[in-house]
Specification:
Number of strands: 6
Largest sheet: 6 strands, mixed
CATH topology of one domain: Rossmann fold
CATH class of one domain: Alpha Beta
Strand order of the largest sheet: 2-3-1-4-5-6
Structural class: alpha/beta
Radius of gyration: 18 Å
Length: 281
Amino acid sequence: MNARAEGSRMVFVGGLHRSGTTPLARALAQHPEISGLTGTGVREDEGQHLQHVYPKAKVYGGSGRFAFDPRAHLTEDSPLATAESAERLRQAWDPHWDLGRRYLLEKSPPNLVMGRFLQAVFPGSSLVVVTRHPVVVALSNKKWRRLVSADPRRFQSVQSLVRHWVVAHQHFADDLPHLQRVHVVRYEDLVAQPERELAAVGEFLGLSSPVPADGLTAGASARYEEQWRTWGDWWRPQHAVRRAVESRLADEVARFGYDVHDLTGRAGTPEPLGARRGGAA
């Protein structure tokens, strides 16, 4: 099998930590034509933790930080974009896939800013990106980081986390003209209408039957939406945090179709991320 034909089997899922990449990848991996990585022994079965070709997100600061480092943004110009890298990645991932399936799926958050690199290494591969409201991602990351680390140096401000979201998604928006097969899913749409959104992903990949939607549920963002609403009360200490995000980042966030004033609403069409490119492989 030639490199392009083999590369067309690869499906990469990306999106910032806490954006919904895991539930989407799990839903896709339930389809009989798709194999996700299993039995890896690493966090969330993410392929980034199994390989030694490119640095993991934690090398650049981990969740909420990695996209600030230009080295995390890999393209076809990277010296790592070689046939040897493809072989080494497959050697790391193949033992954890069912190679009899039509598609082989790898999910890691940094794939958001590595699409051009992955496309170069695996010609014909597909990239599915999940976006979620930047404030929800920030609040969720802040809570999550407290749970996984007692090191105060790992804690970040909500403003910094939202800024990181903007920087990461701007990298992706800049990459879009160079990507041949890419599909963007909004997390909010995915959990509100899972059958519709998964059908769109299935059509993009050319699947012969629907993707199971039973593992996707709405409501996970509700606590953060309520938290943000209460921070609007002027007497609360967190009011200044919300005001800083609104005054400094509202316009940048709005460019991607999100509203920092109302986490349940939208600011308009997310023009930079309105991508669905490539037919069935």
